[in-house]
Amino acid sequence: MLMKEPLLHFLLLGALIFAAYSFVDSDGPADDEIVVTRGQQARLVAAFQATWKRPPAQPEFDALVDNWIREEIAFREAVEMGLDANDTILRRRLRQKFELVAEDIVSIVEPTTQELERFLADNPTDYAQEPTYSLRQVFFSTDTRGDTAQQDAEQALLLLQTDVQLTNPEALGDVSALPYRLVGEHEAGVATQFGREFAAALKAVEPGRWHGPVRSGYGLHLVMIDEYVPGRASTLNEVERNVLRDWHTQQRDQAIDRLYERLRAQYRIKVEAPTSQEEPG
């Protein structure tokens, strides 16, 4: 039961850390002592190798250690002088690190299949399968043909509807970089290639016959939908990776919200009223 409440682990961990710092023995480093541990040295070497793809030479290693000592001195002196008090960037960075600790604790718990199924059922539109189209199109350029593009497209449509043996319908239109045929393309993919206006117009096109002209940002099109597969809800097997990712994100956010609620109760919070010059809006 305790494993189901990750915040308890977080608060216990915080209490242990606090106790460790409060009752540290006399052998620990003093306030005026800076210890460059072997672990810290290993992290410096690893960061150097990640950048330069080789271990540091001795002078380079000495420079890394010296730079870290300078950073530690600067940090301690800045805190002693109170320079961290109103530093927005530093406050945000510390908040991020604080919440990352909470996130690590939350990640202990893994959801059951039933919990993922319930999450999917509560958010069906986030994981729905898009409609897909298999279609052909014949393009008529309004830039090239001008006012005759509409009439030319209508005449070509009549020919396509009556001459079912026509082997190269695309030859009736203009050459363009647009694909003549799409197979199993999602609705969003159609919109990416032909524009939202064209994709929206496909909803009124009856599959199995030439239709048009359909307008896009490029010009006019005659369209034959060979196959239309309607959108549908996804099964967990199809989208489990995305559902698991989003479930963890939701659990993290909710856990951090609860953590702040508990910690907030330990403070007396006062929000001073703004002066008339400071009032928002």
Number of helical runs?
Answer: 10
The global form is: elongated
Structural class by secondary-structure content = alpha+beta
Termini Cα gap: 49 Å
Q: β content, as a range?
A: 5-15%
Helix content: 40-55%
- Poorly predicted residue ranges: 15-26
| Spatial order of strands in the largest sheet | 2-1-4-3
- How big is the Rg? 32 Å
Average pLDDT score: 82
Number of strands: 4
Plain-language structure description:
Residues 15-26 have low confidence and may be disordered. A four-stranded antiparallel beta sheet has the order 2-1-4-3. The chain has helices spanning 6-22, 38-52, 58-80, 88-106, 113-122, 142-145, 149-162, 187-194, 196-201, 236-264, and strands spanning 132-141, 181-186, 210-215, 219-229. The chain is an alpha+beta fold and 281 residues long. It is built from ten helices and four strands; from the N terminus they run H-H-H-H-H-E-H-H-E-H-H-E-E-H. Among the domains are: 2-20 and 31-109, no CATH class; 132-229, Chitinase A, domain 3, CATH 3.10.50.40. The radius of gyration is 32 Å and the shape is elongated.
List the helices and strands and how they pair.
Blueprint: H1 6-22, H2 38-52, H3 58-80, H4 88-106, H5 113-122, E1 132-141, H6 142-145, H7 149-162, E2 181-186, H8 187-194, H9 196-201, E3 210-215, E4 219-229, H10 236-264
Antiparallel strand pairs: 1-2, 1-4, 3-4
Helix pairs in contact: 1-4, 4-10, 5-10
Provide the descriptors you would attach to this structure in a database record.
alpha+beta; Chitinase A, domain 3; four-stranded antiparallel sheet; 10 helices; 4 strands; 52% helix; 12% strand
